[in-house]
Each structure stands twice: as structure tokens, then as C-alpha cells.
Amino acid sequence: MLNRNSLLVFTRCDINSLLRSMSLGALVSAAAFGCSDTATGEQVATPYKPDDAVVIGGEELGGEQTRLSTACEEHDCGTFEDACGDRAAGDVILDQSGNVVDVICYKQDVNVDDVPVDSVQQSDAKNNTVLVLDGEDDGLDVEKDVTISGNNAVIYGSGPDVSVIGGTVDIQKNNAVVRGVRIKKDVTITKNNSKLAFCVIEGDLTISGNNTTVAECTVLGKVTITGVNTVFVEDRLVQTTLSGKNLTCNHDTIVELEADGGVAGDGDAGSLGEVQCTSSGDETPKPEADGDAGAASGGKKLK
Length: 303
What we know:
Blueprint: H1 15-20, E1 35-36, E2 43-44, E3 52-56, E4 64-67, H2 68-75, H3 79-84, E5 89-94, E6 100-106, E7 111-114, E8 123-125, E9 129-132, E10 146-148, E11 154-156, E12 164-165, E13 169-171, E14 177-179, E15 182-183, E16 187-189, E17 195-197, E18 200-201, E19 205-207, E20 213-215, E21 218-219, E22 223-225, E23 231-233, E24 236-237, E25 241-244, E26 248-250, E27 253-255, E28 271-274, E29 276-279
Parallel strand pairs: 3-5, 7-9, 8-10, 9-11, 10-13, 11-14, 12-15, 13-16, 14-17, 15-18, 16-19, 17-20, 18-21, 19-22, 20-23, 21-24, 23-26, 24-27, 25-29
Antiparallel strand pairs: 1-2, 3-4, 5-6, 27-28
């Protein structure tokens, strides 16, 4: 079982130990200190290994770490696995019946951009970029806001206890992924095929884009859904209900917000029961507006 707070499910290789051994002002490139492909031994630039996977929504609270090929053989990922392509890592998301409703893909054919160990004022994730936040417990990694202005961009952290964005996150393009970070203010999703995993959002979460997946996240503010085909799996919310068009939920729990803004307890031990989800029925997503919109990280099965 994985720790829901400290994470990180995918192996971050030796990047963090290397960071601790260097001066705080040094820049460390994942291309120089990346992961090794388990199958081939080849060095890769990304902070995750090819074929790493976590299954979310199954029997293990916090997710089950495995291989993507193994998970998709067991759970039948279908076209979701095909969308990830070769040598990808992935989070496999299950519904209450154990069926795959999404696979969040982490690909190798990307540009890797490391945030310096010293914090930066703001940051922007562009097309086909993995923006990597370090795993040092040294306060804010990005002091203000992060904008996702490119398609197929990923913000990748080492867990919400150590990888922290001090402002908002504004997702302005399609196929964005935000994983393993804490966001101190609001998150706004206006485009399609956005994925959030293993995150803490201290502000509000507003979803107007279609095909959004939120898995293993804590949201301390208000959640508003106006988009279609939204998935919430194994999340912790302070509100007691969720509603949306063609909404899928699996074991989302209500947590109590403490006076200092924290959450009382962890996992089922700290929950006040299940979030009540209401789906308004079958809907068809709106047409995509951006050129790269069809290359989703995993796509969504329409019901």
C-alpha cells in the first residue's frame, strides 16, 4: 500500500539523493540523472520508468504499484493502453466494478524541464513538456502561478508534502497531466482530457473541460463540474456531493477540514463517509478546439 500523502508511486530514481548532495543553487537535469529502463537498462530523461504503473480504485488504498503491461493484461485497458504508446508509464483508473475508465499516460517522447532546487516565481508548461518539481522538503518550488499553455504537458512532482506550487494552476490546453504536487490556490480546467493524480488542491477546483480525471487527490475547496465525462476515483473532498454530466465516481470520501487548513486523519480512518455522486446522464462531448486535442493521454470511454 502506498502512502497517500508522501507518495511517490513511480520510482523517482536517484534524482532526489543527488539533489541533496549538491548545492541548492545547482540545476540538475533529469536527462543527466534520469531513470533506467527496467527492461533494457537504457537511461531515460523522464522522472518515471517505462512501463511503471499504479492501479487506482482497486482493493489497495493509495494504489497498487505494478507494471503497465501487467495491469492492462489483468484489467483489460483496451484502447487506453494503445493511446499511451510504447514505453510509457501509466496510472490505471478503475470504476466501482473494476473496469478501466482511464489510463493516465506518461510518455518518453517528451521534453523534460526541471524546476531549479531554489524556488522560481512562476512557471509555464509548454507543448509535450514534463515540468519536474524536485523532492526536497524546502518550501515552495514555484512561488506563484503555473500555466499549462501547451498541449500534452505534464507537471510532475514527488508528492504533495514536498512538491509545492504557491499560486494557482491554470490548464489552458488539452491533454494536461498534473501529478504528485500540492497547489496552494485554485485549479481551473477549461480544456479537454485533463488528468490530476496524487495531488492536494487547497483552493477550488473548477472543471469546464470534458473528459477530466481526478484520482487520489484531496480538494479542500469547492469542486464545480460543468464539463462532460468527469471521473473521480479515490479522492478526498470536504464537500459531501458531486454532480456532473456522465459523472463516474469510485470510493470518494468526505474529510474534515481542520482549523489550520489541514485534513483530519488519512484515508478511511479520517473520512466522514462517501461523497454522494449524481450523474445527469449520457452526453456527447463538445468538439475539440485545439489542433492537438485528439492525442489524449488516455482518452475516455463514452458510456
